[in-house]
Design goal:
Layout (H helix, E strand, L loop, with lengths): L21 H27 L12 H30 L8 H59 L10 H7 L5 H7 L1 H17 L6 H15 L3 H72 L1
């Protein structure tokens, strides 16, 4: 007689067989992780055929990005289905258990298999990313050290001390001469360096380059280039507009990257949830196939 039936609870009756079978869960997770790696390598090989160093022979960046995203979703779903189905087929049949409980256990096993495979794949991907980031950081530090040595050598060979980058702009404001014409013609290097610091400070400020600095730059440009003040002011305004346009373009690109990253994160989370559902459903299907095959074998005997 069955210990479990619909609407009946045998309080105090406990089976010696555990409800959780880790063997099928681990086996399904390993299979899903292996399938993920194989499919990712396959996708990488196909993706490399879409890009080319030759102009006109390569697909656009948007096409490659969309294709890669779709393939990652397909890989995650296929691997989840494979791992979940194997988990359901490999588990031991639970005797004297209601069909609803069997369904729950199968789906739970499929979910655990998906979770374990996801943790393994993310751990492997995280290790690879960490190694890549470490190599990049080492390259940046090496470049920074080289730049520091070069900068020190240049400073040692220069005739005049260079103002500090953080306070150079304000130092220039304190030391601005009255005779701009003679200074611009006599010391072009210092005048160009001072203008560069003004432009950099204006790029960092929300309001751009102040009016006093615009007038000051226009005076230096007029003296150095030998052009009327009105033409010098027009040239300065044109350059400042180009700087502002470049700044706005950079901010727009950063905002688009932020939106793309947020969209990718939400789609990734949704894809993982769908993968968990697929793994659970596949495990239930695999468990039902296993029980049906055993039942058919029993009847045949």
């Amino acid at each position: 007689m069955s210990l479990y039936s619909s609407g009946v609870s045998d309080v105090g009756v406990e089976s010696s067989t555990p409800a959780l079978a880790w063997g099928p869960v681990i086996g399904g997770a390993v299979a899903a992780a292996a399938a993920t790696i194989i499919l990712l390598l396959l996708g990488s090989g196909v993706g490399l055929t879409m890009v080319s160093p030759w102009s006109g022979d390569s697909a656009s960046f948007a096409t490659v990005g969309v294709t890669a995203t779709i393939w990652l979703v397909v890989v995650q779903w296929l691997a989840s289905a494979l791992g979940g189905y194997l988990t359901g087929r490999l588990r031991t049949k639970w005797a004297n258990v209601h069909t609803d409980e069997v369904f729950f256990r199968d789906t739970a096993h499929g979910f655990l298999s998906w979770a374990l495979a996801t943790v393994v794949v993310v751990g492997l991907a995280g290790s690879a990313f960490t190694s890549l980031a470490g190599a990049g950081a080492q390259a940046v530090s090496t470049a920074a050290a080289t730049a520091t040595v070069a900068g020190t050598a240049a400073a040692a060979n220069s005739d005049a001390a260079t103002p500090d980058a953080a306070t150079g702009y304000f130092t220039d404001m304190l030391l601005r001469p009255q005779d701009l014409a003679s200074r611009a013609q006599a010391d072009n290097a210092s005048a160009a360096a001072e203008i560069s610091r003004i432009l950099m400070q204006g790029a960092l400020n929300e309001g751009g380059v102040p009016e006093a600095d615009r007038t000051y730059i226009s005076s230096i440009v007029a003296s150095r280039a030998g052009i009327p003040p009105e033409e010098a002011r027009a040239r300065v305004d044109q350059v400042l507009k180009q700087i502002e346009d470049a700044k706005n373009a950079a901010l727009k690109a950063a905002d688009e990257a932020r939106k793309s990253a947020a969209t990718a994160a939400m789609l990734g989370a949704l894809s993982l949830l769908v993968g968990a559902f697929i793994a659970s459903a596949a495990a239930a299907l695999g468990g039902r196939h296993r029980d049906d095959e055993e039942a058919a074998l029993t009847v045949a005997r």
